[in-house]
Specification:
Low-confidence stretches of chain A: none
Number of strands of chain B: 5
Number of helices of chain B: 3
Oligomer: heterodimer
Number of domains of chain A: 2
Largest interface: A-B, 26 and 22 residues
Low-confidence stretches of chain B: 116-122
Number of helices of chain A: 11
Bound molecules: iron/sulfur cluster
Shape of chain B: globular
Mean pLDDT of chain A: 88
Radius of gyration of chain A: 22 Å
Radius of gyration of chain B: 13 Å
CATH superfamily of chain B: Dinitrogenase iron-molybdenum cofactor biosynthesis domain
Number of domains of chain B: 1
Mean pLDDT of chain B: 87
CATH class of the largest domain in chain A: Alpha Beta
Shape of chain A: elongated
Helix content of chain B: 10-25%
Amino acid sequence: MKIAVLSGKGGTGKTFISVNMAAAKGKARYIDCDVEEPNGYLFFKPQEVFSREVTVKIPIVDESMCDGCRICIDFCKFNALALIGNKIRVFEEICHSCGGCLLVCPQKAIREKEKVIGRVEQGLSEGVQVVTGILNIGEASGVPIIDYISNIQWDPMELTFIDCPPGSECIVMESIKDADYCILVAEPTLFGVHNLNMVCELVNLFNKPYGVVINKYLDDQNPAEEFCFEKGIDIIGRIPFDKELGAMNSEGFIVARESDKYRQIFLNLINNVVQGVHHEAAINSQR
Amino acid sequence: MKIAIPVNDKSMDKGVCPSFGRAPYFLVYDTETKKGDFIDNGAASSQGGAGIKAAQLIVDNGADALITPRCGENAASVIKTGQVRIYRSIEGSIQENIYALQDGRLSVLDEIQAGFHNHGGR
Ligand code: SF4
Ligand code: SF4
């Protein structure tokens, strides 16, 4: 079963929750898809790390064959090409490697070369297999890295946790497309509600079962909780606001490995998710 | 000399548009004939790389100078390779900016903004 953990913005505790769920489970896979700023490995400190490079194809133009017709420039919807002083210039960081310019060039003046845009690392942390996607700074899109990860033939694993990039852009869609369940992490504030609403719309598009975890939960006013009640969204967990927990986490400890009390919180969360998935499956089979 | 300026309105009395790549129009003003043309910026609505496309438009229109409040890295590289000098705009109307350039009162734009590459994934 694959569980994607996402949130509308960074810093809500997405990594905290996915890391600790994987650690609480003991034997699991944790995939960090937040390729611009992966930080789950900082908690897991994986051993025996093995790395593979991810490349994309970038066009190069043979000047002797190019007649400056500009068909490629007009075609490229990312505006990654320009013609200056009779030479085509390729802006490699803007190019999305769609391969289109190559096809439309009437002179066949365009070829492709491989360019490294990042890497995928994998290692072990106790029973957890830690997979980290890393995008090099300045690159246009991390989508090829996520694609690369989902095309790897992974050994079967009971539970896989996907730490998604923040926001609701297409890289997030790419990260959740294989997921069986989505966990939306929200802060109890009004701003948290705005972000939550954004990701709800996204997972609804995909028709995935999902539930909300409210992080830094306080007993008093709680707009995120009210929002879920109004919309009829499952709240599958509330992580209490706890100074000790916050301190341990910010020092890079995995709290679920440090104390049984915390481990239990995340095991409960896993249980709720598994029930949610089965419930959904039951409903679908009745339809 | 031909001067290009990003503008919001087709009027010489209005100010310079704060954005380069996403300006709706460019004024291309010829100091010899004292005539100006407002051209549509096709790049304004593009998803990404608007600066590059807008820069291409400036180069293609044979401008010798560009007056703009800011300019991204990639756009600047197109513009500079196209032998166009980039000047920093001042407060005031487009007309005042043109006079200022002719009087040598505009400074060269030297800080170029790094692009917002992370928005490329859409
Ligand atoms: S491969 Fe696609 S994105 Fe890259 S330059 Fe060619 S048309 Fe543009
Ligand atoms: S389409 Fe081919 S021939 Fe035309 S400008 Fe582009 S590279 Fe040159």
